[in-house]
Amino acid sequence: VTGGTDNHLLLLDLSKWNIDGETASVLLEEANLEPYAPGSVDNVSKEEGKPLTIRFRIPLRPVITLGELDNLTARRQVAPVTDEMVQKRLDDMLDSQAVLTPSTDPAKDGDTVFADVETSIDGKVVQERRPGTFQVGTNMEEIDSVLRGASATDSVDTDITYPDDYPDPDYAGKTVRFSLFVNHVLTPKRPEATDAWVVQNKLGESLEALRQYLRAGLEAEANQTADEEVRSQLISQVVDRSKVEFPPEMLEQEVNEQIAGLTKSFGDRVLFDNVTWQISDGERVGLTGPNGSG
Question: CA–CA separation, 118 vs 43, rounded Å?
Answer without folding.
Answer: 72
